[in-house]
Amino acid sequence: MGRVKDALRPYVWITRRLRRGEISLATLAWGSVTSFSQFGEDLTLRRLLRDRPVGCYVDVGAFHPFLASNTYLLYRSGWSGINLEP
């Protein structure tokens, strides 16, 4: 019984905070920095380009607009660009 209780503890904590209005579903879904690329390349790009608040990009061989995307994190930060997939 202790294992089940320990496994459910984070969900109970999140539910309580949602009910009290301390967090929203949007914050829960998008609040933390998440990597959308396959191996964290987007986090490296974000770190290298931290001095530029916005810009534009061209992603050649993009595969998908946000699944395994190296540029979706930039897009969410206000950047604009083109994703090309042959």
Radius of gyration, in angstroms, nearest whole number: 18 Å
Distance between termini?
A: 53 Å
Query: Quick check: average pLDDT?
Result: 84
Count of strand segments: 2
State the helix count: 4
- Strands of the widest sheet, in order across it, are 1-2
Helix content: 40-55%
In terms of DSSP E residues, the strand content is 5-15%
Order of helices and strands: HHHEHE
Question: What ranges have pLDDT less than 50 throughout 5 or more consecutive residues?
Answer: none
Main beta-sheet strand count, sense and barrel state:
2 strands, parallel
The helix/strand class is alpha+beta
Global geometry: elongated
General description of the model:
The chain is an alpha+beta fold and 86 residues long. 44% of the residues lie in helices and 12% in strands. It contains 4 helices and 2 strands. Strands 1-2 form a two-stranded parallel sheet. Strand 1, helix 4 (72-76) and strand 2 (80-84) form a beta-alpha-beta unit. The longest helix has 19 residues, at 2-20. The protein is elongated, with a radius of gyration of 18 Å.
Brief summary:
With 86 residues, the protein is α+β, with helices and mostly antiparallel strands. It has 4 helices and 2 strands; from the N terminus they run H-H-H-E-H-E. The protein has helices spanning 2-20, 25-30, 41-48, 72-76; strands at residues 56-60, 80-84.
Chart the SSEs and their pairings.
Blueprint: H1 2-20, H2 25-30, H3 41-48, E1 56-60, H4 72-76, E2 80-84
